[in-house]
Amino acid sequence: MKNNNNKLLNQETLCIHAGKAKGDHKGALTTPLYQTSTFVFDSAEQGAARFAGEEEGYIYTRLGNPTTRELELKVAALEKMEDAAATATGMAAVSGAVLSFVEAGDHVIVSHAIYGCSFALFSHQFKKFGIDVTFVDMANKEALTAALKPNTKLLFAETPINPNLVVLDLQMIGDFCQQHNILSVVDNTFLSPILQTPVDFGIDIIIHSATKFLNGHGDVVAGIIVSSKENIAVIKSTILKDIGGTISPHDAWLILRGLKTLSIRMERHCKSAQTVAEYLHQHPMVKEVFYPGLPSHQGHKYLNNQMRGAGGVIGFELNGDVNTGRKFINSMNLFSLAVSLGDAESLIQHPASMTHSPYTQEERLAAGISDGLIRVSIGLEHTDDIIADLAQAFAHIENVTGKA
Ligand SMILES: *Cc1c(COP(=O)(O)O)cnc(C)c1O
């Protein structure tokens, strides 16, 4: 399959075929795993030409690998962008995308509600290197405009926001960044390119924790940065090469395998999460459900324009205190008590004490993450079984607390 035909193909087909190097790999149907650290040159001249960039070809796996390359081209095609750089973790994608374009003295604007370690990176690590960071509520255009400084270089956001699923207006953010000549970076982990392609709204750089939906099988930590050829060339020839957060070819190979089923997995995640969200919404022991598929949720108006689906993650609050939540989580049977999301297994976790513990309580409350919030990632099990597990946990806390 030639890459220049990608735009003619649908995403379901791209998941399976995009990025495959035609004619390579001795005719193998699937992408072989090039588990090699280095590549042998035919001659001293060839080695020199590759280092000088005068000849295409592989040098050393930190700089590039044929298995990794197919992953990069596949995700780039799915995001409708030119190129990509795969990384060792999602956090290597966040740090790589930002550090490649920002230096001491620059200012960046960051959504006040983001993944916990992204928050820690921006609020604690970058400070050490003289990068000025302003956190704002990006649902508020005035707050965004007020954060602007003459040295603002980059904006970083994620949508839907983890874990309360607040949806940001990507068109507004894309327009704002273009108007002020700011590089925009969006974390698209929660929806995957099947449900949202931020480039449609003028976003410059998209990052993913490939650990989550892209791989989908809970056996890899990895990330990817997607952008123009020019931006990816900068990332690969500077921060990724010299700081070294390159993906392992074995992990790239596992993600390529996972990606073949991405579109059908996302379809099922959305359908099941909708059923579960509706169940939780009507339950008397639930105070509030955060899921864009529910008409009561702030993000619902973005469905079918910005987002092609509401995704597989639901936040909800129980009536009761932190102990009620703990008892609930501890009585799950089918759900695994684990952070991460986007796996075949349904997962449950408590953001305030787990994924969002890098925030102080004050910062967390300002970002809309209450102490009682529970986050579930709805897996690929039958929804009857998922709901039965939730129902027995509700029955358990009802027995303990004696109230519905
Ligand atoms: C998990 C996650 C990350 C970090 O990815 P790792 O692969 O764990 O390094 C970043 N952003 C979001 C939204 C995530 O869910």
Automatic annotation (TrEMBL):
<keyword id="KW-0456">Lyase</keyword>
<dbReference type="InterPro" id="IPR015424">
    <property type="entry name" value="PyrdxlP-dep_Trfase"/>
</dbReference>
<keyword id="KW-0663">Pyridoxal phosphate</keyword>
<dbReference type="InterPro" id="IPR000277">
    <property type="entry name" value="Cys/Met-Metab_PyrdxlP-dep_enz"/>
</dbReference>
<dbReference type="InterPro" id="IPR054542">
    <property type="entry name" value="Cys_met_metab_PP"/>
</dbReference>
<dbReference type="GO" id="GO:0047982">
    <property type="term" value="F:homocysteine desulfhydrase activity"/>
</dbReference>
<feature type="modified residue" description="N6-(pyridoxal phosphate)lysine">
    <location>
        <position position="212"/>
    </location>
</feature>
<dbReference type="GO" id="GO:0030170">
    <property type="term" value="F:pyridoxal phosphate binding"/>
</dbReference>
<dbReference type="GO" id="GO:0005737">
    <property type="term" value="C:cytoplasm"/>
</dbReference>
<comment type="subunit">
    <text>Homotetramer; dimer of active dimers.</text>
</comment>
<comment type="similarity">
    <text>Belongs to the trans-sulfuration enzymes family. L-methionine gamma-lyase subfamily.</text>
</comment>
<dbReference type="GO" id="GO:0019346">
    <property type="term" value="P:transsulfuration"/>
</dbReference>
<dbReference type="InterPro" id="IPR006237">
    <property type="entry name" value="L-Met_gamma_lys"/>
</dbReference>
<dbReference type="GO" id="GO:0018826">
    <property type="term" value="F:methionine gamma-lyase activity"/>
</dbReference>
<dbReference type="Pfam" id="PF01053">
    <property type="entry name" value="Cys_Met_Meta_PP"/>
</dbReference>
<protein>
    <recommendedName>
        <fullName>L-methionine gamma-lyase</fullName>
        <ecNumber>4.4.1.11</ecNumber>
    </recommendedName>
</protein>
<dbReference type="InterPro" id="IPR015422">
    <property type="entry name" value="PyrdxlP-dep_Trfase_small"/>
</dbReference>
<dbReference type="InterPro" id="IPR015421">
    <property type="entry name" value="PyrdxlP-dep_Trfase_major"/>
</dbReference>
